[in-house]
């Protein structure tokens, strides 16, 4: 295959790959059900028609809204500020999925419901999600552990429950080295200290093996690994802290609140 043909083939294959942008994250029905049930409990939506105006090729601005409807949906996150502005201006009731990290980014009148839940959408993308609504009156921020737990419970049910393998200190797997390197630590282990190993004797009766194979390590190498692992652990918990001051103007604003 020449370069041109190769490019063409890649474009062809690309078309069939599920898109992973947040705008293409379709909501698993069980996640939607939890959110809908939560809205029923927390907001007064009895008798209201629930609308989901966000879908491929949709145009949420041209939908006929009235006081007897409520929008409960997962919108394209890239235009969520303008969606909130549109619904607030038209007086349309809404409860929307929202990007967690930029939840406070738009200075508009809505309640931010912080759940910080990792939702796995239908395209496989894992997106930290929170919510926004105009049905919670004077509440500006609601950190809701109850909703978070309900959503997390779904994630746990959907997870394949693989056992975690715990190996003796003298066994080296690639993921063990990776966990050191990923925390910014480097490590050298010498050939003379390692013996290739596919499977521990204790794994044979269970027909299990070291995933991706590994090595038996000398006590010297095992000690070196343990030291690096504990340094890596320390590095992972140590974070640089930057302290920001309040200005006189900000202090004056704060005095006037409440
Ligand atoms: C995050 S997805 C969620 C889809 C669906 N609401 C769900 O909960 O699974 C957002 C959808 O909104 C669509 N969309 C983008 N712009 C839109 C617009 N102006 N009006 C309505 N839908 C739009 C996107 O094509 C995408 O299908």
Briefly characterize the structure.
The chain is α/β, with parallel strands linked by helices and 258 residues long. It is 34% helix and 18% strand. The protein has helices at 3-16, 29-42, 80-90, 145-158, 174-181, 219-237, 248-256, and strands spanning 49-51, 69-73, 93-99, 111-120, 126-133, 141-143, 171-173, 194-197, 214-217.
Please tell me about this protein's structure.
The structure is a single chain. The protein has 258 residues and is α/β, with parallel strands linked by helices. The chain folds into two domains: 12-158, Rossmann fold; 172-237, no CATH class. Helix content is 34%, strand content 18%. The chain is built from seven helices and nine strands. The strands form two sheets. A six-stranded mixed β-sheet has the order 1-2-3-5-4-6, with helices on both faces. The protein has a three-stranded antiparallel β-sheet with strand order 7-9-8. β2 (69-73), α3 and β3 (93-99) form a beta-alpha-beta unit. The protein starts with a helix and ends with a helix. The model has no long low-confidence stretch (mean pLDDT 89). The structure holds S-adenosylmethionine (SAM).
